[in-house]
Design brief:
Blueprint (H helix, E strand, L loop, with lengths): L6 H15 L5 H10 L12 H7 L6 E5 L5 H8 L3 E6 L2 H14 L3 E5 L11 E7 L9 H10 L1 E12 L16 H8 L6 E7 L2 E5 L5 E13 L3
Parallel strand pairs: 1-2, 1-4, 2-3, 4-5
Antiparallel strand pairs: 5-8, 6-8, 7-8
Helix pairs in contact: 1-2, 4-5
């Protein structure tokens, strides 16, 4: 959900945010609408690598993709037989995700939510929160607690965050919460949850202008124990 911009891109984004305010959007909606309108397409369309690694070994069922962006993860899951609900705060992102799903020939339920205020209904075998981080005020811990509440007994909550700024970022001093801090902030009952993965793996990544470097992901995979 969160990308670290260059100074020029951030200035352009601020101008778009000011325009969106005149249309009555929330702060989060303003920011992410402006963000997605910086380019015709922001992401590669491929699924996030930690998701593919984790979900490849899971039986299919109902999946919830929080902060789905342009739909790469949702389409990947749907192609493998998951019944996917995908949500985002940005109408522009959702329109692009819907187009991606149509091109892929898969059915996905898309919903628009500002997770600071609303949350999708239902219970899910997999709830995925990939980079659900934002530079604007956002009650992330509360949103992740609601995400945990949406996991069925026996299901999995997968949280993947930026562990460090990418090497091409102009904001290299930004600090992100560790997996341990994120887990503590969610405040789950240890008697009802089992931690299956917790760590900060590194991988090669490519930036928006073709830069390459080592990226750090903070990963939490939490299994809700059967009742």
């Amino acid at each position: 959900m969160h990308e670290i911009f260059s100074a020029q891109a951030e200035a352009e984004n601020c101008e778009r945010v000011m325009g969106n305010r005149r249309h009555g959007l929330s702060e989060s909606e303003q920011y992410w609408e402006a963000h997605y309108n910086t380019r015709r397409r922001l992401w590669s369309g491929r699924a996030n690598p930690v998701l593919t690694d984790v979900a490849d070994g899971l039986p299919t069922g109902a999946a919830l993709d929080l902060g789905c962006g342009e739909g790469g993860d949702a389409v990947w899951l749907a192609r493998r037989g998951w019944r996917v609900t995908a949500v985002d705060v940005s109408a522009t992102a959702l329109a692009r995700a819907e187009a991606h799903a149509a091109e892929a020939g898969v059915e996905i339920r898309f919903e628009r939510h500002d997770l600071a205020h609303t949350f999708p209904q239902g219970a899910f075998d997999l709830v995925s929160a990939q980079y659900l981080q934002s530079p604007v005020d956002f009650p992330r811990a509360e949103a992740l607690r609601r995400a945990a509440d949406a996991v069925r007994p026996g299901g999995l909550l997968l949280v993947v965050d930026h562990g460090a700024p990418p090497p091409w970022s102009p904001n290299l001093d930004v600090r992100f919460p560790t997996p341990e801090e994120t887990l503590a902030g969610i405040g789950l009952d240890d008697a009802r949850w089992r931690t299956e993965r917790m760590g900060s793996p590194r991988r090669q990544g490519t930036g928006p202008d073709g830069q390459t470097g080592v990226l750090v992901d903070n990963v939490l995979a939490l299994r809700r124990l059967p009742a």
